[in-house]
Amino acid sequence: MTPAYLTNDMRRTDLAWSDWPAIEALLKDELICRVAVHDTPFPYVTAQSFTFTGDAFLIHSSRYGKLASAIRANPHVTIEVDRPVALLKAPKGQNTSLEYYSVIARCVATLRDQTDEIRAHQYVALDKFRPEKDYTPIEDGAANQIVAYCCEVRSLSAKKRILADGQYSPPGQPRAPYLRYPFPAGATLSALPEEAFDTQRFAR
Questions:
Q1: How far apart are CA 65 and CA 138, in angstroms?
Q2: Residue 158: φ, ψ to 5°
Q3: Contact 78/36 with Cβ under 8 angstroms?
Q4: pTM passes above 0.85
Q5: In angstroms, what CA-CA distances link 150 with 90, 94, 101, 171?
Q6: How many Å apart are CA 204 and CA 202, to the nearest integer?
Q7: What angle do CA 82, 87, 90 make, to 5 degrees?
Q8: Which of the 8 DSSP states describes residue 184?
Q9: Using one digit for the tens of pLDDT, what is the confidence trace for 112-133?
């Protein structure tokens, strides 16, 4: 079911991406997001690993760093996830472009800084990276070094540009004769071999 927070009001309506199952699959497969927080005089942006739960992004950081202090001061954050697909070239310089997927989520972060709640948060986050659950419990010392954030999605927009879907040029402009150069498969969970999720790796 498409969530109510998916809002694709944008200038380039031809690039709006509304296929929620595909958007959700992208968010569950990608490994890195960019988190933007309020700071003075410039916004602060950092790359973070993340887990998407369907209505929130789970991230964590050092409890003593810049990200933690910024979110404590203002919990409104923006999270961006993207996947470049191919480089596009045509005779005209302005027709040099990319195929891509992109998601922007506007969220409100709740901090979790107690040992038990951090541990519970991290176990949920680990389900993305270690679904085989072959690890030993998270130690108090490790949990006490970090702060966890549950970034609840308030609104989310998604864009894609894929030639196979007919997304060649802005409406009303001639269709450019693009040559397409796909990028190698990126760093995604689905690109990992089966042995990355072997439940017996440490038992041998």
A1: 21
A2: -140, 140
A3: yes
A4: yes
A5: 43, 41, 24, 39
A6: 6
A7: 140
A8: P
A9: 999 999 999 999 999 999 999 9
